[in-house]
Amino acid sequence: MANGSPLVFTVRRHPPKLVTPAKPTPCESKQLSDIDDQEGLRFQIPVIQFYRYDPKMRGRDPAKVIREALSQALVYYYPFAGRLREGDNRKLIVECNGEGVIFIEADADLTLDQFGDALQPPFPCLEELLYDVPGSSGVLNCPLLLIQVTRLRCGGFIFALRLNHTMSDASGLVQFMTAVGEIAQGAAAPCLQPVWQRERLNAREPPLVSCTHHEYDEVEDTKGTIIPLDDMAHRSFFFGPTEISGLRRFLPTHLRKCSAFEILTACLWRCRTIALQPEPNEEVRVLCIVNARSKFNPPLPSGYYGNAFALPVGLSAAGKLCQNPLGYALALVKKAKADVTEEYMKSSADLMVKKGRPHFTVVRSFVVSDVTRAGFGDVDFGWGKAAYGGPAKGGVGAIPGVASFLIPFRNKRGEDGIVVPICLPSAAMDRFERELDSMVNGDGVATGTSTFIVSAL
């Protein structure tokens, strides 16, 4: 659908139903961790998976298969069937009451091929594929999961999910979705048993903020620099081996051994800052979402499905970021990632308790999350791996427009790479696209239009 007319289609939804655990589950209250329980995670995150028709599943109804497997998976993941309450000092607690998750069965009058060769955000008619049931989207006292399965005319289907982010991060959510997939294919129980143990990521007694956390700095928005929600453009950009090699040309030799996440984050942060045109002396920051599961000693159990990431920061004056070569931004990103240790995580939890669970800084901030290894595309309900699996759009969060994802993607030429949805005001998006194209395809001087934009709405 890139550069074509917008795709319009009709979705016929059955009334939403609550799916409850297939067997009785414990009635109890469970506290979230102090990493789960921060203002910046109090929102619903959308995920979408596209599945092609598989002849071996002929006669099987994906909605029925997934609904029944979901009910059985909730026996093991019963906190998802509960509701969040707020205790003293805004502490979030799951009341495990078995009320259930919302499930919607639907049919759409189109085929998977009509989405075009490039299945990636932003998706047309997303609100039809992931219906916001009135009264269901609150953080407190609402279902923690909403799932819609939409059958397509070709025999394929779309699995869309909305998660209360305080419950899980990408790794935890994929673990749950994988459990549903395993049970859908006949397993009696998930291969990986879920582990709660949220107390592992609680504040110490007494709390001691031992590290610097610029991600939670209180920054006044004196010039209206939080992105406005009107006139927003959503576009996705593809980075394959050619594009990433193009970016490495700008790096000094000692920085060329860097990950795709590091170089793309540095490049996107720099181009986005140029596009938004802040004053040269204004402070801008990039927040790198870093999975901290392996940083603990002993490591967190492999079945842990809570939030277990940090938000370390690269910080710069806007003028220095824009005027310096790409290596300047890259060095800041690499240093930020290196900051994350077990002590850093404990310090983050302590800060939450001491400072009233603040939102991360959003003024002149850019948040980047790498889900290339999360495994969304590997989730299999019996119809094989997803044609696309991952975040449904960029710019999600309690403050829209601030966050982007790095998502694994295969383009229509069969190249494996990374697709990045970006959300910016329209005028800034045009500047962003020119700057990015000059970095990837040119000599670092902005010219012409992009050759690698893959989707736009």
Write the layout of secondary structure elements.
Blueprint: E1 11-13, E2 17-19, E3 28-31, E4 44-51, H1 62-76, E5 83-86, E6 92-96, E7 101-108, H2 126-129, E8 145-151, E9 157-164, H3 170-184, E10 232-239, H4 241-248, H5 260-276, E11 283-291, E12 309-310, E13 313-317, H6 318-323, H7 326-338, H8 342-354, E14 365-370, E15 388-391, E16 403-410, E17 416-425, H9 426-441, E18 453-456
Parallel strand pairs: 7-8, 11-14, 14-16
Antiparallel strand pairs: 1-7, 2-7, 3-6, 4-9, 4-15, 5-6, 8-9, 10-17, 10-18, 11-12, 11-13, 16-17
Structure description:
This protein is α+β, with helices and mostly antiparallel strands and 457 residues long. The protein has helices at 62-76, 126-129, 170-184, 241-248, 260-276, 318-323, 326-338, 342-354, 426-441; strands spanning 11-13, 17-19, 28-31, 44-51, 83-86, 92-96, 101-108, 145-151, 157-164, 232-239, 283-291, 309-310, 313-317, 365-370, 388-391, 403-410, 416-425, 453-456. The longest helix has 17 residues, at 260-276. The protein is globular, with a radius of gyration of 22 Å.
